[in-house]
Prior knowledge:
By secondary structure, this protein is of the alpha/beta class. Helices cover about 25% and strands about 20% of the residues. It has helices at about 15-25, 40-50, 65-75, 90-95, 130-135, 180-190, 210-220; strands spanning about 5-10, 30, 55-60, 80-85, 100-110, 140-145, 170-175, 195, 200, 205. Helix 1 packs parallel to helix 7. The protein starts with 5 loop residues before the first strand and ends with a helix. The relative contact order is 0.17.
Amino acid sequence: MSELTKIKICGLTRSVDIEYVNELMPDYVGFVFAKSKRRISTQDAAKLIAGLKPGIKKVGVFVNESIPNLLETARVCRLDVIQLHGSEDLDYCKKLAGYEVWKSFGLPGTEYAGGKTDGDADEVCFINFKDIEQYKDFGVLLDTCCKGSFGGTGKRFDWKAAKGMSSRFFTILAGGITPENVKEAIETVKPHVVDVSSGVETDGHKDFEKIKKLIMNARG
């Protein structure tokens, strides 16, 4: 591994999650404000964030939210980063001045790496590298594309397809990253950030030991 890849633990919903990250100190933590099993209200997120140690950056995850609502949530929660997982376009991103913006792009899961799709894949979210060029001033988040989902599926794509991305863009890698494979993910893609949610959960909740192992393996 070359430059140290930063770590984001996404989908925090409980006060104990804050205790975990305050002890383990990932670089970023994420709060999901879109439809999801990890969705959290603005008010509840703000309460959790109040107990977060300084130095951990706060990321808000949104899907096709109105800009006024998004900016109000960002203000109340004192977010540092806005992560967009819907059909938000370049103009939308430019209206979020004052915040670091990460725009998500989907790639087919490993079972569709040959270009085939079926009921679990959705061609409309497959990555278009020409589109990405427009977002060079923003973070480019690469995630696994699954039909009916905007991320957080725990499925991975073929990381070799993202080789070289980090030399051209600020690259965030998501999708199916676990404590066991995070080192491979970093060595293959060399992302600036790895974004992990379900990979550090047990029974749908954040697991202290899994987060600890992931951070140790990523930074080791």
